[in-house]
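Reading a protein record of the kind used here takes only a little practice. To see the layout at work, look at the sequence and tokens printed below.
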Amino acid sequence: MTSRRVTVTVDDGHVDAVLDVAAELARRGMTVESVLQALGVVTGTADHPEELRDVPGVLSVDAEQDVRLAPPGADVQAAEVSPDG
């Protein structure tokens, strides 16, 4: 499996222990790239982001999503919308 970029948010009760939470995330396979202590956020990569949700103090684990837009002038961009909706 390919590693995915993830953002982990720590719950309010563990913000002061965000470094400990980050250490546990690393033990569970996350490659920790940054710890934003004041925000209670840890970023990095993980092969199995869903497994990080069980770490004590973790409020949410959000995997990066790919978004692709059609190029300018593509049919999807040129669609007209009637004033009636």
The first helix runs from residue 18 to 27. The chain has a mean pLDDT of 89. The longest strand covers residues 4-10.
